[in-house]
Amino acid sequence: MATKVNKFDKIINIKNKKASFQFEFIDTYKAGMVLKGTEIKSIREGKVSLTESFCVFLDGELYVRQMHIAPYSMAASYNHDAVRDRKLLLGKKELEKLQTKSQEKGLTIIPVRIFINDRGMAKMEIALGRGKKVHDKRQDLKEKDAKRELQRMALK
């Protein structure tokens, strides 16, 4: 018998690598995104950049700014803007909690990764974060190098 092929088998997991280096994550949330048809097709191809993106509240709703989704190659004239504000979908209580926390000094909301769940929906993991100091970043680099050295020794 032939096995059933799932069209969502290709795993999409796009990460913001700069975020974990520059920010200390306090709390994380999973949010849905309001997208156009060509945007979701580009996300499934993996053509997304989160490096310069950030989240902001506009009229009580959460939006992600500066997220770059490349135009879909197969679309002719109905393509989307590569960089535009995209609405994030969260529960009312989560939005209120995030809005009050983000107004505290030094806290910001950062997009961490984009993934496609088992139902085929594009989701974004966002984090409430505090910026790291220079000495914290140096400490992280030292720990990362130490782990790498231990792995090299274990392989020999």
Automatic annotation (TrEMBL):
Cross-referenced CDD domains: SmpB (cd09294)
GO MF term list: RNA binding
Subcellular location: Cytoplasm
The keyword RNA-binding belongs to this UniProt entry's keyword annotation: yes
Main location as per UniProt: cytoplasm
Top-level division of the source organism's lineage: Bacteria
UniProt GO cellular component terms: cytosol
Family statement drawn from the similarity comment of this UniProt entry: Belongs to the SmpB family.
Name of the molecule in the record: SsrA-binding protein
Lineage: Bacteria, Pseudomonadati, Bacteroidota, Cytophagia, Cytophagales
UniProt gene name: smpB
